[in-house]
Structures are given as C-alpha cells and as structure tokens.
Amino acid sequence: MREGIIHPDLLAHLRRLGHGESIAVVDWANPSYAAAREEEKPLFDFGYAPGLLSARQALEGLAKSIVVEKIYYASEMPGVIGAEATEELLSLVGGAERSPVRHTVLKDFIGRSRLIIRTGAPGNYLNFVVQVGAEKWERGAGQR
After folding, report:
1. Fewest beta carbons within 10 Å, which of 10, 54, 135, 142?
2. Domain residue extents for the chain
3. DSSP designation for 121
4. What are the two backbone dihedrals, phi and then psi, of residue 125, each rounded to the nearest 5 degrees?
C-alpha cells in the first residue's frame, strides 16, 4: 500500500487484492449497486449525496493507494462528458494502460470486479474498472 485512502475497511479489501484483479468505480445511478448487495460483494457506498465523493476523488485515492495497471472506461464517455474531461479523469491513474470498451461490455467488467466503490458522481458513463498492477521492487543498498 502507498498513500491515499484512509477508510480502514476499504484499505483491508484493497490489501487482499492480487495482481490482475479489478475494482469498479461507479456513478450513483449504476445498477451494479443492487447486484453487489445481492451477491454479497464488497460494496463501499460513498454516493450518499450528489457530487460527494466524485469520480475524480475516487480515482485519485486509488491511484495513490495501489498500482493501477489498466483502466477500462466506456468508449461513449468522451462524447457525453467531453474529450477534455475524459482525459483529465484518465490522467489521474498515470501510466496505466487505457482501454475504452462499449458501455455494455463495461457493465460485464463491473459485474466481475472484486469490489465496487459507488460514488456520488451524477450523470452517465462515469464508471471505471481499474485493474490492480504489481508493485515494482528495486534493489536496495547492499543487494546484488
């Protein structure tokens, strides 16, 4: 773990994730919320009021807490929120590979995610699936 997220239960779940597993960050209206409750999948519901925990804040927190290897998003998103806003959100996860997919495909990815973070983000297409990467280790002093 690095820095960023301070919610103890969310941190505990993040620590259990392995390389290649995924986390869904969804807007307040995404139907995965109900499905997660039925499947007893870890669900962190921060969408208690519009705009409180934004998609931006959720992505920033994840990017500071874990290595994000890949980010999936709806290919329709730039047409809805604008190319500049899309770029701003995607840039939050630094060097992660970007993978635009059809909204219907993204819904499937969200359903297969290991945990879901529901934001208060209003609107459509503010949904992401981040794939956990592996920490890159460097040799310390005195190691060969």
Report:
1. 142
2. 8-132
3. -
4. 70, 15
